[in-house]
C-alpha cells in the first residue's frame, strides 16, 4: 500500500500556482513526476501524491525543481484567474477516473508524437549528412579531375614544345651539314684547279720540246693526271634509336636525392596497411586509395565535426580505427563526437583507450592527455558519477595547472558533490 503525501503548501497568482511538496527523506528524480493539464502525480515508492487540479494548466511551460528535500512546482494557468482550491472538490469517482484516464492517454499520445518527431528529425539529419557527404565527395572528385586535366594539358604543351624544338634542331643540323658539304666540295674544286694549272705550265728550259706521252696513252692521253681523280665523299650517317633502361622506382625523385631508409619504412607501412585491408576489410575494395588512408579519414572526420555532422564524423573515425588502431587522436576525436551525440559510455571507452595509447606520459602528448581526461570526466558527470568525473578533472589540472576553465569546472563538480551529500 502506498503512503499518501498529504502535507503540501501552495499559493497562487492570477497567472500561476506555486506548490511545495516535502519528500520526507525520499530521493526524487524527474522520472517520478507526471504532469498533465488537469492531473499531477508524484510517485516515489512508498510515497504517492495525486492531485486533480482545479483548472487546466500549461503543462509544457510548467516546471518542477528538486532540492533541499522538497519538490517546487511552478504551474502556469491556461486562463488567468484565482482558484478557489488547488484540487477539484466534490467530484464523483467516475469523473476523477475519467480525468486520470484522459491524462494518461494524452501523455501517451504526446510521447508517441515526440518519438515520431524525433525519428523524423533523425531521418532528416541522416539525409542531410548523406547529402553533405555526397556533395563533399563530388567536390573532391571534381577537384581531382580538374587537377588531372590541368596536368594533362601541361604535359601536352610540354611535349608539343619539345617536338617543335626537336624539329628546329634537326632542321638546323641538316642546314649545317649542307653547308659543310658545300664547303668540302668547294675545297676539292680548288685543289683540282691547282693541279690542272700546274700540269699545263711547261717546265723551264723545255718549252720547245713536246712532253713525253705517258706510257699507255698512245698520243691521246688526257691532260689530267691519274692522281687528279675526283675524291669520293663519305656517305651520310644513318639514323638510329638508342634505348635507355632505368631502374624502376616507386618515388619520382632520383636515387641520389632520396632518403632510402625513410622510403623503405613508408613502403613497409603501406604494404602492412594493404595486407590489413585485404585480410579484414574485403568490403572496402571499391574505396579509392586515399580513402584507405587513416590520416585522410581523420582529416575528413574533423571537417564533419566542424560542420556539426557528428554521425558522419563517427563513421570516418570508425573506418580509420579499423585501418590503424594505434593512433590515440582517432579515439580522442571520436570521444568528442560521442559526447555531442550523448553516447556517454562510448565516450568514456574512447577516452580511456586514448589515455592507454598516450603512454608513456611525455611533454609532447600533454595536450592530448588533458583533453582525454576532460572528455572522460565530462561523460562521468553527465552520468551523475561526479566522484569519478572530479578525479579526471583533477588529473587534467595536474598536467595543466594554469588552465582556468578546467579549474572552474572542477570547482562546480565539488559543489555538486557537496550538495548531493547534503540532500542524502
TrEMBL record:
CDD domains: p23_DYX1C1_like. Pfam families: CS (PF04969), TPR_8 (PF13181). InterPro entries: CS_dom (IPR007052), CS_DYX1C1 (IPR037894), Dynein_assembly_factor_4 (IPR052004), HSP20-like_chaperone (IPR008978), TPR-like_helical_dom_sf (IPR011990), TPR_rpt (IPR019734). Residues 3-87 form the CS domain. Keywords: Cell projection, Coiled coil, Cytoplasm, Neurogenesis, Nucleus, Repeat, TPR repeat. One of its GO terms (cellular component) is nucleus. TPR repeats lie at residues 370-403. It comes from the Eukaryota. Residues 197-218 are annotated as: Disordered. It is found in: Cell projection, Neuron projection; Dynein axonemal particle; Nucleus. One of its GO terms (biological process) is determination of left/right symmetry. GO terms for molecular function: nuclear estrogen receptor binding. Residues 88-165 form a coiled coil. This is Dynein axonemal assembly factor 4. The gene is Dnaaf4.
